Structures are given as C-alpha cells and as structure tokens.
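step 3/5: co-fold with adenosine-5'-triphosphate
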Amino acid sequence: MRENLSNYSVVLEGVSKNYGDQQILKQVDLQLEQGKFYTLLGPSGCGKTTILNLIAGFTEASEGVIYLNNQRVNEVPANQRQVNTVFQNYSLFPHLNVYDNVAFGLAIQGRPKAEIQKEVDQALAMVELSGFQKRPIEALSGGQQQRVAIARAIVNKPDVLLLDEPFSALDMKLRKAMQVELRELQQSLGITFVFVTHDQEEALAMSDWIFVMEAGRIVQSGLPTDIYDEPVNRYVAEFIGESNILPATMVADYEVNFAGQTFACSDAGIPAGESVEVVIRPEDLQVTEPGQGVVDATVETVLFRGVFNELIAVDAQDYRWKVHTTARVEPEDFIGLNIGPHDIHVMRFNESEEAFDARIEQYSVGGESDE
Ligand SMILES: Nc1ncnc2c1ncn2[C@@H]1O[C@H](COP(=O)(O)OP(=O)(O)OP(=O)(O)O)[C@@H](O)[C@H]1O
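step 4/5: write tokens
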C-alpha cells in the first residue's frame, strides 16, 4: 500500500487513540493529497480535534502509523513537523503586537531580522492586515485576531495547516466572509488544509473533500456534492442538511417502494425485498396541484425563510413532508408533491457491523472522486 502514497502530504493508517479504557479514535485511515482543502466534520466529541493533535504531534497514536510527506512521523516531535495549527481561541500573545506575534516562531529559530521582516510583511499582506504591524492584539476585532492567528501559522510556510474550528468566535456575517477568504488563501498558498468544524454548511461551502465522523470513525468521505446528494445512512443525511427520510423496500434494481407506491430511483445494488430508507431533500420536492404529483398533502405550517418558504405538509399516511419551495402556499392548502427519480436516494438500513466496515474501507480514502 505504501509505495502508492508518495503524492500524499498526510496519511493515517489504522490509527486508533485510547484515553484509559476509552477508545476515542477507531482505526482511522486518511490519505490527504498535497494542496487540497479537507474538512473533518462531525458533532462535538467525535474525535476531530484528536485527529489534528495526532497530525500535529501534540498527542501520540495508541495504534497505527502517521506519515507526513511519506515519512513516518510517529516519533517525530511536534516542533520538527512541517505542520502549523490555528486554534479555536487563536492562542495569540496578548502582550505582544501584531508584528511580534507573527514573527515569534521565526525569531525563535534565530532567523536574520531583515528576513523575518520580509516574511512577516508578506504573511500579513496575505491576510489583508498590511499596516497593522504595530497594533496591540487587544485593539483588534475578533476577525482581525483570527487573521493574525492565520498569518502566524502560514509565516512558517508549513506543508500542512490544521485549523480547529477557527471561526467559532465570529458572528455569522464575519464567518461567511472569512469562509471565502480562507478558501482563497488556501488556493493561493497551495498547501494542504485540514479544517475541523461541526458546521455542515461551512464544510460544504469550503472543502474539496469532506470526512464525516461519528464516534471516532469516518463514516463517509467524498466531494461535498456526493456527501449531500448521496448520504450513506440516516446519520449522515440528518447531519448534513434537512431531509425527508422514509422507510422503504427495494422492489427491483432502480425501483423502490415507499409511501404506498413504487418509484424509479437513482440507486441500485441492493437486493429486491430488502428494507431500506430513502432520503429526499426538501428542495427537491416540487409543489403542484393535488393529483398532479406523486403524493398529496395538507399544508400544516409555512415558515418564510427569505428566499424560500419552508413547509410542513402531511400526507394521507400521516408522513410530515419538509418542503422548501418558492411557491406561494398557505396553511391548510391541499397540494400535490412531485419528486424526480434522481432526487430519491436509497440508503441501507440496519447495516451489519461487517458491512459497515467493508463500506467505510472505500470511503476512508481522500482525494479526487473516481466517478
Ligand atoms: N486528554 C484527554 N483525556 C481524556 N479524554 C480526552 C482527552 N482529549 C479528548 N478526550 C475525549 O476524546 C473525545 C474526542 O474529543 P475531541 O476533542 O477530539 O472531539 P471533537 O470532535 O474535536 O469535539 P469538539 O468539537 O467538542 O472539539 C471526547 O470524548 C473527549 O472528552
């Protein structure tokens, strides 16, 4: 396996991490290509930060091997790895000004003053803070402090930049602006970013490739569009966006039965007769006249969301459909709902542990989709 990994800047092979008798990471495999934006996405406590700490060298793996640029680094101390971290709380030195914060690492290495100045000015320009050199840290906004933290991390020209929920202290508007900036910065630097978040929208918007985690394991990995359109199970579907999830039965290849009817569907490979679940995203349902769609339903609630209306509509079998539509609809309206076959995605139900292991094996490889 190893000889094919020379293009990867980070590789984790069968990495587990235990604290006492608690297994925090379970056999994690990751292969991260040079120069891409990767996101580890999952709820609090699933082990995202632990993966960053292992890559950075802040903690040791209980089992498995970690490679950086094709070199085994399990025994290499943090300060000798070409990796920098931007922490959630920025960890800036409050008594130093912007320049000294960014220069700190280079000064410790004993680099010549003129060189440090050039590098720091360049890093500050990358994060659009030229002219802020003399500012005390406390005289900066949250967003500016965030940029200083990024400048301090990139000034060392690391091969890999780890970012642990770097936007959590920012308000929504600034967060969105920083998402765009960080993505642009990553593209211009061309270094590998490993970004940790529990915010699915952030992950979808920024990443080349997403790893979805649950309780110390990677349950799915893929392009943002794959993760959104083809979640492998209910956990991923519910974690990534809103969804309608219905119990269903496979009738044949490309045919699935739910809500009392048989539908063409875009997924196959599951034997006829098997119980599955289907996921349908709220924006994929079209509101029509009653009788014109695949199911009729009575509108229960309408929430105005600005660019669309969010409806709950109840069908004859008491299923409560979530619908995002630009149609004008009122509570108590009787409507039809239509679904295209490509918008019905089948998910395996009650998967055995062995089947799960076999499936995540193929999902734990990062990089281009081979589709
Ligand atoms: N030093 C430690 N000793 C014992 N348990 C730890 C230690 N560090 C982390 N853990 C536990 O490991 C689990 C995973 O923690 P981790 O910080 O990796 O999660 P996370 O997905 O990054 O969550 P969050 O989004 O809340 O930071 C948690 O249950 C945490 O309590």
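step 5/5: annotate
Residues 2-230 form a domain with the Rossmann fold fold (CATH 3.40.50.300).
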